[in-house]
């Protein structure tokens, strides 16, 4: 019987298929679509105040009742990835009070009985100082201050809400902020967020601030720990449950600040930690910050929590370096680009050397004689962008670009035309971009250059200013003249997720 069934089954299937041959194809009705409009991609709310959304417009041809579901969660990866999702409403209008400031993903699910649509919004729950530009300053007597230029929501702009604060450190009257050196915003998904400020005061104070209220949550005394004051802050990195950034000490050593314990740990490096560079890399899934320190003799990196070094070629010294911020589809590896120049002789010879992000596989991509002195030195501040393969930097109070990934990566020399020339008397103190370090190569968010300046001859106003330029056009977007004391550092305070 089993043998008979084995032969009959294929035969029956064949007859069934043959009987279908020649029949007209059934016309399936297209499911009724859902069209949503009326809300901006970015939605702003204020913590502890009710967010009211009633501008939603929905079109559906199903003729059935619509079912709504609003929920929100923390960002995970690129937008609209989200985790820790919380349901908040089933109404077409939304009235909800968010208790905690931060950056979230707001999701709207709509079901018309035939189709289901998902719509995502970038939700910014603000509590005062969530997003904007931080300018760390000192006055002539060494008293420190932290100016802030807020990125206002459309509603705040319409209401004429305050945009500029000349000193947010007055929030912490119990601390005497002096000889401030660097400011750093840290935030990795799944880890604590905050702001770190280094100083050269008598106790080598390092301050940790809450990312929203800017209140001091911890003060470390570097002089008590290691007898050292620290300056430039670089980071941040994660490994397992560990979360840290690096600072450069006055003793040219590397110090690791552990965010989980607020501890400072010295790390021995193969070369002096004299200068620092922030490497921003981006793959197709995420972005990371890399830490680079260098002296004329060699470069130190910290790949995968290890310590790696790369010595300058014999007879050469390093002038400067940059990390290639990889854009979508542009390059297949994260690389460092190093400028080395002969110590003796004339004319001097320049080598442009690329290495991997672990400082391995060095490759000389260009060697040439320096006909005119290059417009670059070790103190030159360099930033990169996903927009292109250029490194933008300051020299002699002007902004230039070095086409480090181009076909001819020669460093600009005397006679080169600057990309940006500031008004007379403005001295460039620091530069940065508006990059969000965790975003992937698919998200181009670093399209502005921030330039903090000092004008010692200014009268009738404060000497510090901030200029914002577009990295796409190199045109000025906005200027904030005379808003602060003498700047020492500028940083973009991006929205954090916790």
From TrEMBL:
Record keyword Transcription regulation present: no
Domain PKD: from-to ranges: 60-112
**Segment forming the signal sequence:** 1-18
Q: Which domain of life is it from?
A: Bacteria
Could you list this entry's UniProt keywords, alphabetically sorted.
Signal
Keyword Signal carried by entry: yes
Q: What is this protein called?
A: PKD domain-containing protein
Q: Specify the species.
A: Alistipes shahii WAL 8301
Lineage of origin: Bacteria, Pseudomonadati, Bacteroidota, Bacteroidia, Bacteroidales
């Amino acid at each position: 019987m089993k043998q008979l069934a084995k032969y009959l089954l294929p035969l029956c299937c064949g007859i069934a298929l043959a009987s279908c041959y020649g029949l007209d194809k059934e016309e399936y009705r297209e499911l009724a679509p859902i069209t949503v409009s009326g809300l901006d991609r970015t939605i702003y709310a204020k913590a502890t105040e009710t967010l009211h959304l009633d501008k939603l417009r929905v079109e559906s041809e199903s003729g059935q009742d619509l079912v709504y579901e609003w929920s929100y969660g923390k960002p995970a990866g690129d937008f609209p990835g989200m985790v820790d999702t919380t349901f908040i409403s089933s109404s077409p209008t939304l009235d909800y009070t968010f208790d905690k400031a931060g950056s979230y993903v707001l999701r709207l699910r709509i079901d018309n009985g035939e189709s289901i649509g998902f719509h995502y919004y970038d939700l910014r729950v603000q509590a005062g100082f969530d997003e904007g530009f931080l300018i760390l300053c000192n006055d002539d007597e060494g008293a420190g201050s932290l100016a802030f230029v807020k990125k206002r929501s459309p509603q705040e702009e319409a209401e004429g809400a305050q945009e500029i604060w000349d000193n947010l450190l007055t929030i912490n009257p119990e601390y005497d902020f002096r000889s401030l050196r660097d400011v750093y915003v840290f935030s990795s998904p799944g880890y604590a967020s905050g702001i770190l400020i280094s100083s050269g005061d008598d106790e080598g104070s390092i301050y940790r601030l809450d990312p929203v209220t800017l209140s001091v949550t911890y003060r470390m005394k570097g002089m008590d720990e290691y007898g050292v004051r620290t300056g430039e802050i670089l980071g941040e990195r994660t490994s397992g449950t560990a979360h840290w950034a690096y600072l450069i000490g006055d003793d040219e050593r590397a110090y690791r600040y552990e965010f989980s314990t607020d501890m400072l740990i010295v790390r021995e490096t193969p070369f002096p930690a004299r200068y620092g560079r922030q490497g921003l890399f981006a793959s197709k899934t995420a972005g990371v910050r890399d830490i680079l320190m260098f002296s004329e003799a060699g470069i130190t990196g910290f790949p995968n929590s290890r310590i790696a070094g790369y010595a300058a070629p014999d007879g050469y010294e390093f002038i400067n370096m940059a990390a290639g911020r990889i854009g979508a589809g542009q390059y297949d590896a994260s690389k460092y680009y190093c400028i080395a120049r002969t110590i003796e002789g004339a004319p001097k010879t320049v080598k442009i050397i690329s290495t991997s992000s672990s400082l391995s596989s060095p490759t000389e991509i260009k060697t040439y004689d320096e006909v005119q002195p290059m417009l670059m030195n070790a103190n030159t501040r360099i930033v990169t962008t996903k927009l292109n393969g250029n490194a933008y930097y300051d020299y002699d109070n002007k902004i230039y670009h070095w086409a480090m990934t181009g076909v001819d990566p020669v460093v600009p020399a005397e006679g080169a035309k600057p990309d940006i020339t500031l008004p007379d008397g403005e001295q460039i103190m620091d530069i940065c971009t508006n990059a969000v370090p965790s975003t992937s190569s698919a998200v181009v968010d670093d399209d502005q250059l921030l330039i903090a300046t000092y004008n010692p001859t200014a009268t009738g106003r404060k000497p510090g200013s901030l200029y914002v330029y577009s990295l796409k056009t190199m045109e000025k977007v906005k200027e904030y003249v005379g808003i602060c004391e003498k700047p020492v550092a500028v940083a973009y305070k991006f929205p954090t997720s916790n």
